């Protein structure tokens, strides 16, 4: 029986996943506020919950995954003013840039990517209902949620209203009744983008947008709501207050929050000069290695970025690729042998048992709150066993396929794209030159001209090409 356990921020404990509908999951993950490119801290959140979605689908669930774009916000307005551009142009450009970087990281598009500006009528209706139900009030064109009207306010962040009130202050420009009350609708300032509403021209507050997009695209109750730990309060706390006040029942069954990402042991901050944009990182590191690094710790735990950690991620991806290349090369050589008897090529029980045990190892750790760190360890166990199998005297093509498919299957679940295949029909002129040099080296070795063979190896090494001499012949690949 399939049993997935996940840590629920609401209860502070791991719980068995029980969905609203059998084998279906309504999953909402907070997306970016599109005023700039996203940084590696954002990237961790996007990669983590893309992986959670992939794993749920791997385990047989039909997942409706919604990730929003906050495309109306003070930061977008400020950015547009800095650039002397239209607010919509700025938001649209950074939405396009999000997709470019997300695609590079192997992040799949959501089932729906709603924009806040596409939901203005629903937002106005939602706010009007909160006012009618006594949970919100209007002050001079602004509308605020009355936190005292929701008895459970603070239940996600495990704070009392008194504790929260002590940490808030009302600014001169605010007209709210209590420091913890928050804006649902903001009256327009001169020159700002606005929409007409019953309370005058203005725009929605940040928190109301996600409540409305959840309801519009997933329904009044969802299975999983996810985001970074920094969103627990006030954003997610306020979403709960709004949604449960309007609908009168549980908003989300499970709340997932990923841990922080530090840079060299310190919190990422522009003031410290350690702010890393994902685009910049992707220009100097392989996307697969970046994704590997972001999954290298269990998602709730802090993750520390260092150049050494990225080097290790690069080396890990290379190790996996090398194993897959060795398997493919051995299989191709084996199938070319005249004595190879394909009818006898079956997967023996002892080999299949090892393959199945690694797959079970992977699902066991991923079923336990999506532990990608141990999931990666399972992949390397498959690599280790496959390499051990390659050294055996009796090797069968079908068993090589079994190991290869297992490794590729687990990589796909984690969204790790590796580079293994070289299509000879579309090989570049450089590849053809390398093939020629490899052939010359082989001829030199046959003639026992080892000095010339070593010269060719060194020349190829300077190009970043690794030569491997195996019992089945010489093969090459780029580091």
Give an account of the 3D structure.
With 479 residues, this protein is of the alpha/beta class. The protein folds into three domains: 5-258, 3-Layer(aba) Sandwich (Rossmann fold); 320-413, Four Helix Bundle (Hemerythrin (Met), subunit A) (Up-down Bundle), CATH 1.20.120; 424-478. Helix content is 47%, strand content 15%. The chain has a four-stranded parallel sheet, covered by helices on one side. It has a four-stranded antiparallel sheet with strand order 5-6-7-8. Strands 12-11-13 form a three-stranded mixed sheet. Helix 1 (40-58) links the parallel strand 3 (24-29) and strand 4 (62-67). Helix 4 (120-132) crosses helix 6 (206-217) and helix 10 runs parallel beside helix 12 (372-390). The protein starts with a strand and ends with a strand. Mean pLDDT is 91; it is low at 422-427.
Short account of what is shown:
With 479 residues, the chain is α/β, with parallel strands linked by helices.
Essential attributes:
479 residues; alpha/beta; Rossmann fold; Four Helix Bundle (Hemerythrin (Met), subunit A); 3 domains; 4-stranded parallel β-sheet; 4-stranded antiparallel β-sheet; 15 helices; 15 strands; 15% strand; elongated; metal-binding; ATP-binding; aminoacyl-trna synthetase
């Amino acid at each position: 029986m399939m049993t997935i356990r996940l840590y629920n921020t609401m209860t502070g404990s791991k719980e068995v996943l029980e969905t609203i509908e059998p084998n279906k999951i309504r999953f909402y993950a907070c997306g970016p506020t599109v005023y700039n490119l996203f940084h590696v801290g954002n990237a961790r959140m996007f990669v983590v919950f893309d992986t959670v979605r992939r794993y749920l689908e791997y385990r047989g669930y039909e997942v409706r995954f919604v990730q929003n774009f906050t495309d109306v916000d003070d930061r977008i307005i400020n950015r547009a003013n800095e650039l002397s551009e239209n607010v919509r142009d700025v938001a649209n450009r950074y939405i396009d840039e999000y997709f470019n970087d997300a695609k590079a990281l192997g992040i799949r598009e959501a089932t729906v990517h709603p924009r806040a500006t596409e939901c203005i009528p629903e937002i106005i209706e939602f706010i009007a209902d909160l006012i009618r139900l006594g949970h919100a009030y209007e002050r001079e064109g602004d509308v605020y949620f009355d936190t005292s009207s929701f008895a459970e306010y603070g239940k996600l962040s495990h704070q009392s209203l008194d504790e929260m009130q002590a940490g808030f202050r009302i600014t001169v420009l605010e007209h709210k009744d209590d420091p913890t009350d928050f804006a649902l609708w903001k009256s327009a300032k001169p020159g700002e983008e606005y929409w007409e509403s019953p309370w005058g021209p203005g725009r929605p507050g940040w928190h109301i947008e996600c409540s409305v997009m959840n309801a519009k695209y997933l329904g009044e109750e969802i299975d999983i709501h996810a985001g970074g730990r920094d969103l627990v309060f006030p954003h997610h706390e306020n979403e709960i207050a709004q949604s449960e006040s309007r609908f009168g029942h549980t908003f989300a069954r499970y709340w997932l929050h990923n841990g922080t990402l530090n840079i060299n042991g310190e919190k990422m901050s522009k003031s410290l000069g350690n702010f890393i944009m994902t685009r910049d990182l992707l220009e100097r590191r392989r996307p697969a290695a970046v994704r590997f690094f972001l999954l290298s710790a269990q998602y709730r735990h802090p993750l520390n970025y260092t150049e050494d950690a990225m080097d290790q991620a690069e080396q890990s991806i290379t190790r996996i690729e090398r194993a897959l290349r060795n398997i493919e090369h051995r299989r191709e050589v084996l199938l070319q042998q005249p004595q190879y008897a394909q009818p006898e090529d079956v997967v023996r029980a002892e080999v299949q048992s090892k393959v199945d045990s690694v797959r079970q190892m992977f699902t066991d750790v991923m079923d336990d709150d999506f532990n990608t760190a141990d999931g990666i360890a399972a992949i390397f166990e498959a690599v280790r066993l496959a390499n051990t199998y390659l050294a055996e005297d009796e090797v069968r093509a079908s068993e090589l396929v079994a190991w290869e498919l297992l490794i590729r299957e687990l990589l796909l679940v984690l969204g790790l794209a590796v580079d293994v295949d070289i299509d000879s029909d579309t090989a570049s002129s450089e590849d053809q030159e390398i093939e020629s040099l490899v052939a010359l080296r082989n001829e030199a070795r046959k003639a026992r001209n080892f000095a010339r063979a070593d010269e060719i190896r060194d020349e190829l090494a300077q190009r970043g090409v690794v030569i491997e001499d195996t019992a089945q012949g010489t093969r090459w690949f780029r580091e």
